[in-house]
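Re: weekly structure request thread

Next one in the queue (352 aa):
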Amino acid sequence: MTLAPPPPPPPPLPPVQAVRWSDDGHAVRILDQRCLPEHEVYRELDTVSEVCDAIATLAVRGAPAIGIAGAMGLTLALGEGPDDSRGLSSLENAAEQIRRTRPTAVNLSWALDRMLAVARASSSGLRDKLRDEASRILDEDRAMCRRLGELGAQLIVDGGHVLTHCNAGALATGGIGTALAAIYVAAEQGKRVAVYADETRPLLQGSRLTAWELQRAGIPVTVLVDGAAATLMRAGRVDACFVGADRIAANGDVANKVGTYALALAARSHGVPFYVVAPTSTFDPSTPRGEDIVIEQRMPDEVRRGFGAPTAPPEVDVYNPAFDVTPAELITAIVSDRAIHRPPFDFASATR
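Done, posted below.
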C-alpha cells in the first residue's frame, strides 16, 4: 500500500529541557512529566529525598534523564555546609538510595558509579568536582543525542511513517532524545516524516508525552491504542518502528517499556524493520542475556486507578511490570552513538 507523504510540519517551539541545574546551580530543575500534557510545570529539587521521589514517581523519567538527575542529585548529599564535611560514606549511602528507585535502567547506576569514582579520587574540592562531573554527564548526553539522531536518520526514508512506543525523546534525555532524535534530525534534513505513537499503557507516556513533544516540535503525530499497532502494520501504514531502551544485554536483548516485545513480534510478522536507538551508557556487558535483567514491578494502582477514576475492581490482582525484554533476534538494528549495529550482536566487550 502506497501512502501519501505527510505534509510539511509547522514551525517548532523551543526545545524541551527535561532536566538541568537550577538557575543558581544549587538544585536540580526538572519538567514534571506527571503534569503533562495539561500543564507544563517545572520543579526544583533541593534534597536527595526529593530527587528519589521524582525518579520513583516518574516526574523525571527515561533512562538517560534519570541518570543525569541521579548524578546531579548526588551532589545534594553534601548539603551546603563546609565543602567536604559529609564525606564519602554519606555520598555512598545517598547513591544507594537513588540507585534503588529504578533498578532496570542501567544509566542510573552508570552515572552514580561515575560520580562515586570522582569522589573516591578526590582529596579536596569535592562539591565542585561532583558538580563539574554531573555537568559533563549532561553535556555528553546532549552530544550523544545528536550523534544518535544523525545515525538513526539514515534509516528513515523521505515520506516515511514511523511507529514508536513510550517516550524516547527530549523528555527522556538531556538533549533531543534517542529514538525520537532520529526523527528530529530526519526532519531537519528536509525529510517528510510522520509518527504513530502508541498510547503506552498503563501510564500513557506515548499519548501524554511523545504526542505533546512531537506536536510542540512541529512533527506530524497520530496517537493509537497499543492494541492497534499490529493492524496498522498489516494495512501497510508503517515503514519502520523506532524505540528506545533502558538496558541492552551483551547478546543484544533489549529491556524497554512494557509492550515493546509485542510490538517487535508484530513488526517481524509484517516485515517491518524494528530499530532500537540507545546510547552506549545503556549497554550492559555484565548482563549476558535479557533473562538476567531485573524487571521493575510497579504499584497495582497504576493499573487499577492510574489517573484517579477506577478502571478495575479495587482489590483485583494486578501484574504491572514496567518493562519487558525483546529478544535480539527480533531486532533489525541497534543504533548507538558509535555505530549502527547489525545482528549477530555481541556487546560483551562494550564499554560505557
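The longest helix spans residues 126-153. The chain is about 35% helix and 15% strand.
Next request, please.
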